[in-house]
Tetraspanin
Amino acid sequence: MAVEGAMKCVKILHYVLLLAFFACAVGLMAVGVGTLLVFNATVDQGTASGVLPVVIIAVGAFLFLVAIVGCCGACQESYCLMVTFVIFLSLILLVEVATAIAGYVLRDKVRSEFSKDFRQHVENYPKQNQTDVYLDKMQTQFSCCGADNYTDWQKLPLEPKNWVPDSCCVNVTVGCGLNFKAKDIHTEGCVEKIGAWLKGHVLVVAAAALGIAFVEVLGIIFACCLVKSIQSGYEVM
């Protein structure tokens, strides 16, 4: 027996939300990959904070697969597939909440690890083992110099002392960091600069996460309605 009225609307909305799930899944994987690249470049691998991007990527991939299950379940009006969809989507929502909590709890640890690693990179800069390329890129991109400030470079056992990498200069030219003047270089440290940049982007990520969670809650509600309808013996559309 065909279901009329509200249940037809629910099924249509379910398909619309599935499209949103596919978009959210791709977005999560993109954010996870981007975050992983940043973490690999700034924080030692194997730390607890480095696990978060992997979790985000895994959640995005799993959400994509769950959306396929939801689409198949709705098309075939399969009670089993729709129940599976509801259960998996609920699990994804719980994992996302846990990830958000972990990110908040580990925020200070991430900053501490980044600060420690950046100082280590500064010390390794003279060895020219790709560390110099990484630091030059970071200092140029964020208009900063050193970990805390430009004086970090004066602490290295190098001659002459009045020296910073050319990437610290406001106008980068070969040799501009030798016998520099403070007004000609970026004096602010990279740890503070990059930390401020990350803090500004956290609000955008948090807003996106809330939007995704809201869509998932709606998806669970509509899917439960379809499950109830199928269980009652209705043939939807």
Q: What stands out?
A: The longest helix spans residues 190-231. The two ends are 9 Å apart (CA to CA).
